[in-house]
Structures are given as C-alpha cells and as structure tokens.
Amino acid sequence: MKNIILMGPPGAGKGTNAKRITSFYKIPHISTGDMFREAIKNKTPLGELANSYMSKGLLVPDEVTIGLVKERLSKDDCKDGYLLDGFPRTLVQAEALTKLSEEINRPITSVINIIVPEDILIDRICGRRVCKVCGAPYHVRNLKPKVEGVCDLCGGELVQRKDDNEETLKSRLEEYHKQTEPLIAYYNKLGVVTDVDGTKDLDLLLEDIKTILKD
Ligand code: ADP
Ligand code: ZN
Predict the structure, then answer these.
(1) Where are the alpha helices (DSSP H) in 42-147?
(2) What's the Cα-to-Cα distance from 176 to each of 6, 20, 39, 181, 182, rounded to whole Å?
(3) Per-residue pLDDT averaged across 96-115, rounded?
(4) pTM surpassing 0.90?
(5) Which ligand neighbours the alpha carbon of 30 most closely?
(6) Residue 74, phi-psi category: left (phi > 0), alpha (psi -120 to 50), beta (remainder)
C-alpha cells in the first residue's frame, strides 16, 4: 500500500519528484499548493482567501486546508493509495490527517523527507520559472527551456510564481522551520520517515525513493 507524504522545505523539489513518483505508481498526486493556485486562477472565494495568505508567504488557515484535503481524500481514486505534496504543514493538520486517513482505511505508510541545504533552496526558488499553461518547472540556469521563456512541453509562456521572490521566501522558510519541520518528529515516532538527498540527480533520486517504497 502506498499512502505517502512528501515533505521538505520550499524549493526542495516536492512538486517535481511528486509527479515522477505518482506517474510511476499510478496514484493521485495531491498538492495543496496546486489546489490553491487553481482556485486563484479560477477566481473562486477559496482562491481569494488562499491568495491573501500565499502572497505573504504565510500558511493558509488549518480549517480551510484540512477541509480541502478531506474532500479530496474521500474521492474514489485514493482507494489504491495517494501521495500528499505540501500537506500536512502543521501539527493540527497532521493530527487531522491521522484521523482522516484511518477513516478511509489508508493510514500513512511512508513519509519521504527531502533534504536540501538552505543556500541551494534560495537559489532554486529565485531562479524558478513555471509554465503558465501546464505548470512544468524550469530554472533560469539549471533547467533552461530550449527557447527562452517558452515551455518545451506545450509552448506555454514561462512565468515566475508570485510567491517566488526573496521577500516572500523568507516568510515561507520561517513558516517551514517553525510549523512544518517539527512534524518530522511526529512521524519519526510512528517510524515511517526516511530522509532522501534532494540535491541528487532526479533519476537517481527516483531510484532511491522506489527502494524505500518497495514493500
Ligand atoms: P512551496 O512548498 O514551494 O512553498 P507549495 O505550492 O507547496 O510551495 O505552497 C505554496 C503556498 O501555498 C504556501 O506558502 C502556503 O501559503 C500555501 N499552502 C500550501 N499547502 C498548505 C498547507 N498544507 N497549509 C497551509 N498553507 C498551505
Ligand atoms: Zn507547458
């Protein structure tokens, strides 16, 4: 059973690795950040609320985020496992998830904790560009598209995420250290955490993760 949480600071590569893991195991990729960005794009009330926190680098309130994940986890496609990316981020969220995941008979089986030094995180985030259309990630130096400003996959325009600037990143890192990092201890008590090296080549990292997830 693959009921996975992918953890790590902003810029660790959760989104990129999540996509690779979920396409290999054919399980849904549940990213609260993506869900909020989708709501912002569609100008829904949830989007408006989420944007007021995200644009400052702050966490969206627990009750909103938990409600969203509860709804998503109750869908049929989570019956054979799931991967959470960016959730839980607080102790209250983690406790809610423990309950929710047991209710659907899919308790968390592994927490993969992506480790990346802080100077690399800052460089990755400040140089990150994403496709406006399909969301594919790029970097101005480390992962350039074939044509500047244009997505290799779909031809969409490459833009900078609104919260990918030095000022907002500072708050995001603070939130991470204060609220999210302590969750490693919470899951360590359950004996489900494995650290992986987020600076590794993506293919090698995927091999490491497959070895961890093999049961
Ligand atoms: P990153 O991990 O690079 O910061 P995400 O896309 O996961 O990017 O999250 C972007 C923003 O969305 C966060 O800074 C926060 O404002 C909001 N967000 C995402 N997930 C959560 C969550 N579980 N709880 C509260 N806020 C969240
Ligand atoms: Zn694209």
Answers:
(1) 45-54, 62-73, 91-103, 118-126
(2) 14, 24, 23, 6, 9
(3) 96
(4) yes
(5) 1
(6) alpha
Structure confidence at residue 55 (pLDDT):
93
**Ligand 2: centre distance to CA 130 (Å):** 8
Centre of ligand 2 to C-alpha 191, Å, is 38
Asked if pLDDT for residue 98 goes beyond 90, the answer is yes
For the CA atoms of 22, 198, 187, 89, what is the dihedral angle to 10 degrees? -80
User: What is the distance of C-alpha 31 from the center of its chain?
Assistant: 5
On whether the CB atoms of residues 193 and 115 are closer than 8 A, the answer is no
Q: What percent of the chain has pLDDT over 90?
A: 95
135-156: average pLDDT: 94
- Residue 33: count other Cβ atoms within 10 Å of its Cβ: 19
**Domains in the chain: ranges and CATH:** 2-117+167-213 (3.40.50.300), 128-163 (no CATH)
Is 72 a catalytic site residue?
no
Contact 40, 47 (CB under 8 A): yes
